[in-house]
Amino acid sequence: MFKKLFSILTIFLLLIPHVIIPDMVVKAETLGDVERELEKYKADYQANKEMQQQTKEEMQDTQNKIAKANNDIVVANNEIIALQKEIEDLNKEISKKESEIKEIMNFFQKSNGESAYLEYMFGAKTFTDFIYRMAISEQMTDYNKRLIKEYEEKIEENNKKTEELGSRKTELQKMQQNLEVLYKSLQTDLNSYIEDQVSIEEEIRMKEDAIAMYKEMGCQTDDEIDICTREKLPPTTELFRPLVSGYVTQEFGRPDSSTSYLYSIHGAIDISTYDNNTPVYAAGNGLVVAISRNQSCGNNIVYIQHVLYSGETYTTAYWHLRRVLVDEGDVVTKDTPIGIMGGAYYDYDECAMGAHVHFVVATGLYLQDYYYISTLNSRRINPRMVVNFPDYGVEWEDRLTKY
Question: Does this model's pTM top 0.85?
Answer without folding.
Answer: no
